Amino acid sequence: MTEIATSKVNFRDIDNILKSFDYNKSYLIAMLQKVQEVYRYLPEEAMTYIGEHVDGLSPATVYGVATFYAQFSLEPKGKYEIKVCDGTACHVRGSMPVLNAIRNKLNLKEGQTTCEGGLFSLEIVSCLGACGLAPVCVINDKVYPQMTSDAISTILDTLMKEEGVA
Amino acid sequence: MTLNINIFDEQKKAQEHIKEQGLRVLVCAGTGCVANGSLKVIEKFRELGANVSTLTDYDKMTIVPTGCHGFCEQGVLVIIPDKHVTYVKVHAEDVEEIFESHVRNNQPVERLLYKDPKTGEAVHKNDDINFYAKQTRTALKNCGKINAESIEEAISVRGYEALAKVIEENNPDGVIDTITKSGLRGRGGGGFPTGMKWKFTAANRGGKSYVVCNGDEGDPGAFMDRSVMEGDPHKLLEGMAIAGFAIGADEAYIYVRAEYPLAIKRLRKAIADAEEKNFLGKNIMGSDFSFTIHIKEGAGAFVCGEETALIASIEGERGMPRPKPPFPANKGLFGRPTLINNVETLANVPLIILNGAEWFSSMGCETSKGTKTFALTGEVNNTGLIEVPMGTTLRQIIFDIGGGIRGGKKFKAVQIGGPSGGCLTEEHLDISMDYDSLIKAGAMVGSGGLVVMAEDTCMVEVARFFMNFTKNESCGKCVPCREGTKNMLKILEKIVAGKGEMEDLDRLEQLALTVKDGSLCGLGKTAPNPVLSTLKYFKDEYIAHIRDHKCPAGVCTAMKKISIDPEKCKGCTKCARTCPVGAIEGTVKNPHKIDQSKCIKCEACLNACPFKAISKE
């Protein structure tokens, strides 16, 4: 488990987020996005807190919204969030071999999204709008164009070296 | 209404400001080119241009980071308008050469020019590149020509002139008339007449109402809205303000996908700049008209492209559609009358106001007026974003603008309109690309994603791919959509795995019709389209999978066998070293063999073999 995952949720931070949106329930999605920015996932305590402190919401509605949208994760994401685009253009130009290469490299089993140690997490997204460069991967907002299984392996190797795990 | 700003003075000032920039070097800073390293190119140019004494013919050089040029394939694109040149695939290392040779000594750098794939000749001017020459760029006109983060540059190309005009003339019904006469139809997919939508919402003038811009471009393979938001955000804001003025709204929301961080950033900056100039906000240009625009980020749900789901999402709820009526025009966001238009639709509005309804309706064909942007991707030589008059044929788009199929492969089909659309085949190459002709052919314009497929694409797998997408994105409200897509996917997976039965084809068709009939929103109503259209045009491929256990395109792994020809194998061991699962055995200088029980059919060996001894069947 990563360090952050075990640390306690700071309710004062959460409250500051709610305050910045005026405790307005129509900004629930934006609130959750801010919380996820801080913790890299949505801790249960944070969701409950929002449900209890924003007028018109309940923990159940917050949970309902959190589970509806693909962007939200109820489990900690990795320090490096890898997104493999599997939009039509990327799919046709071979995003699956790239995905498999990442799975192999990170030793991810079927259904597992975050690798041992919490350094990397993997997610399949549909279309990042960079179809001209298909297939693409995004690692923490950096877009890597025209990926192949070799190219992504090299990129992961470099990151692992930087982190001192390879 | 009298205005306290003269927009033409502002325009002159802005144009002066651009003249003062000296030699303008346009570097694409759209998502695609940034991924290819355009920020480094910009940095390097700025470094070199900073030393003014080294510039020979100019007293200044200004590097302009622009929005997307559309020709993403050839990125990073560098255009120097004064020198009539477009450079393609520019890297930071090439910048010095361009600077020394072309900027200082007027010698174009031949090796960085675009080469026509047919003739091999170098092309200097942007407009001479086939990809651009055959387009009519209106909505995308400024994308790639101006600094998207500068309001001055937008003003210099007539930005906010149309807004000033409509406020000054103060005839909201006249604006709606103009839009109606222009024949503009919704560019987001449905093709509903825009003027009519405005009229319905305007009928509720008097109380609070909203304008909502749908920037939730969810169709995989489409990125025109992203390009407009990133490349010419002020045009969108101006279109929204004009819509607000026409229908009597003072507040608006832009709903943007969270997958488009750059678009969100540029829109935020554009809104702040426009408010500072008083082109947005309270009492715009000194008039009675006030208009505030907010941005709401999506969180990754395809169904939010549907207007009632989008409204729910802006309100902070699960993005689930609701039955219509009531239509948003009567009861939309926060229960108030709401006008929802797509990005591209709104971007066309200022142009229609400036150039007139006749100008717009002179382009296009009988029932579909104006131009349409298409995202041309997949197995085509020139991938990118294009804009052509409605009614252009598929052949012109794929072979003239797109430069034909990659690697000399044979054209098989085009998937149009994303997961809601269908495929068009060889027999449709000369079909007119407009709303009605495409519906007749069993497809739809949709948002305009065109994914070109060649002979080695398996259409059954494509149908499975889309069904997997809609199954994941179904919100779960309507049972036929939730359960139907799941079961259709199961059947398709079975066929792709080589375990299909002939009865499955009937089952698929029956389920498809149930899902279509029993779903509330566009997602469910159109989800079976890819299956129905592949069943119609490529039934033989389905049958080959089921009866002969063969994938004609050689894609489906379950039916694929990769083997090494012992005659051709020289025993170089390269394949064995490449194989990720250790399925290849053999010793040096002796023919190798693939253990079929271990092989995962990834084809890594096939690409690695220097002697072409490995083949698949």
- Give the count of helical stretches of chain B: 25
Poorly predicted runs of chain A: 1-6
Strand order of the largest sheet of chain A: 2-1-3-4
Tally of individual helices of chain A = 8
CATH topology of the largest domain in chain A: Glutaredoxin
The largest β sheet of chain A comes out as:
4 strands, mixed
Proportion of residues in β-strands of chain A: 5-15%
**Name of the top-level CATH class of the largest domain in chain A:** Alpha Beta
Rounded to an integer in angstroms, the radius of gyration calculated over CA atoms of chain B is: 27 Å
Strand order, largest beta sheet of chain B: 12-11-15-13-14
The CATH H-level superfamily of the largest domain in chain A is: Glutaredoxin
Question: Secondary structure elements and their pairing?
Answer:
The complex is a heterodimer of chains A (166) and B (617).
Chain A: H1 3-6, H2 11-20, H3 28-39, H4 44-53, H5 59-68, E1 80-85, H6 88-92, H7 95-106, E2 120-125, E3 137-139, E4 142-144, H8 149-162
Parallel strand pairs in A: 1-2
Antiparallel strand pairs in A: 1-3, 3-4
Helix pairs in contact in A: 4-5, 7-8
Chain B: H1 7-19, E1 23-28, H2 31-35, H3 38-50, E2 61-66, E3 78-80, E4 85-87, H4 95-104, E5 114-115, E6 122-123, H5 130-133, H6 151-156, H7 161-169, H8 172-182, H9 194-202, E7 210-215, H10 224-231, H11 233-247, E8 251-256, H12 261-276, E9 292-297, H13 307-314, E10 338-342, H14 343-355, H15 357-361, E11 371-378, E12 384-389, H16 394-401, E13 411-416, E14 422-425, H17 435-440, E15 449-454, H18 459-473, H19 479-496, H20 503-517, H21 522-526, H22 529-537, H23 539-547, E16 562-564, H24 574-578, E17 584-585, E18 593-594, H25 604-608, E19 614-616
Parallel strand pairs in B: 1-2, 7-8, 7-10, 8-9, 11-15
Antiparallel strand pairs in B: 1-3, 3-4, 5-6, 11-12, 13-14, 13-15, 16-19, 17-18
